[in-house]
From TrEMBL:
Organism: Archaeoglobus profundus (strain DSM 5631 / JCM 9629 / NBRC 100127 / Av18)
Residues of the Low-salt glycan biosynthesis hexosyltransferase Agl6 C-terminal transmembrane region domain: 222-293
Keyword Transferase recorded: yes
Molecular function via GO: transferase activity
Organism placement in taxonomy: Archaea, Methanobacteriati, Methanobacteriota, Archaeoglobi, Archaeoglobales
Alphabetic keyword roster: Membrane, Transferase, Transmembrane, Transmembrane helix
Keyword Protein biosynthesis appears in the UniProt entry: no
Name by which UniProt lists this protein: Glycosyl transferase family 2
Positions of transmembrane segments: 234-258, 270-290
């Protein structure tokens, strides 16, 4: 069994060394452990410190592409290395890598495809109140959209089985955390939650300049992901509401017409009714087309999965021949 620990990092020279040093070098059931740092266009010494601290691979984006893209780079790279289990941990030192054996245990036991560390934010003294509320709302929305039990959607300490990692197609460019949960739920993967420690952040957050910009950008990714998996209900919902409101206006005009034989005083309502009915109907038709596109997407994802499997089998047979 091979474990790859991946660490996306953006200007984390202060903390990345400790994170790497905390990674256990021997774990029961694992023969090989490799550490991959994805240095996302850092302008400090993150790369140098990572190498000096014992990272086996440092992949550098020439410029800052964002956490989600760095996560995708790391996942692809870990799969190319032939990982059986992949752990993602942040570079800011808030998670304790010594908890990796506990995190990967359900995957090694074959009980889960993905394991996510639950920071139990209710119990955290060092997290500001506003951030706690934001975290709770985002977790609740993710749970509703994914339709599964979600304890802490924003946690960056996670383990993936090879199969789960191959199934992830991260499309957002800001954060991957909620998107991967919604995808996993839709693909029928089993997610398990394990309570973990979460330390106070030393230094400023790289990802969250303020809570509103985070909410806006993460919210967009969450909604997009949901739309991609449930286009029919999204467009049918929006179109249905427009159509219903349009019909109510139309009814008002019709009743007046039956009573008086005139439409004129209600002309604005009549125009609005027609507009709403037309836009609502188009939205519903659009939903049907989007549903067909979803089928294409699912098929493409299946093809992508098989391609990754083939690539992986090739890597394994090459490394056996060496
Ligand atoms: N690759 C990459 N990583 C980033 C970027 N921004 C943040 N990160 C990394 O993502 C991890 C989480 O970022 P943080 O800034 O700690 O955000 P957070 O943990 O959600 O929020 P805090 O509670 O403020 O720490 C850290 O390892 C960062 O180095 C980025 O633009 N690119
Ligand atoms: Mg952090």
């Amino acid at each position: 069994m091979k474990l790859v620990v991946m660490i996306p990092a953006y200007n984390e020279e202060e903390s990345i060394g400790k994170v790497i040093r905390e990674i256990p070098r021997e774990i029961d059931g694992i023969e090989d452990i490799e550490v991959v740092v994805i240095n996302d266009g850092s302008t400090d010494n993150t790369e140098k410190v990572a190498i000096e601290s014992g990272a086996h691979h440092v992949i550098t984006h020439k410029r800052n592409l964002g956490l989600a893209r760095a996560f995708k780079t790391g996942l692809d790279y870990a799969l190319k290395l032939g990982a059986d289990v992949i752990v993602n941990i942040d570079a800011d030192g808030q998670y304790n890598a010594k908890e990796i054996p506990k995190l990967i245990s359900p995957i090694l036991e074959g009980e889960a495809d993905i394991v996510i560390g639950d920071r139990q934010i209710d119990k955290l003294d060092h997290m500001p109140k506003a951030k706690k509320i934001g975290n709770k709302i985002a977790t609740w929305v993710t749970a509703k959209l994914a339709g599964i039990d979600v304890r802490d959607a924003q946690s960056g300490f996670r383990a993936f089985s090879r199969k789960a990692a191959m199934m992830m197609n991260v499309l957002g460019d800001y954060t991957y955390v909620q998107e991967t949960i919604i995808q996993a739920a839709n693909k029928g993967l089993k997610i398990e939650w394990i309570p973990i420690k979460f330390r106070k952040r030393e230094g400023k957050s790289r990802l969250i300049p303020n809570i509103w910009s985070y909410a806006k950008r993460a919210g967009m990714t969450i909604l997009r992901t949901y739309r991609d998996y449930h286009p029919l209900s999204v467009f049918l919902g929006i179109g249905g509401i427009l159509l219903l409101v349009g019909l109510i206006f139309a009814l008002r005009v019709l009743i007046h017409y039956i009573q008086t034989g005139m439409v004129t005083p209600y002309l604005p309502s009549a125009v609005l009714a027609v507009m709403l009915i037309v836009v609502g109907s188009i939205t519903i038709v659009f939903g049907l087309v989007a549903d067909m596109l979803k089928m294409q997407r699912l098929m493409l994802e299946e093809v992508l999965y098989r391609l990754k499997e083939m690539e992986e089998a090739e890597t394994r047979s090459k490394s056996r021949q060496k």
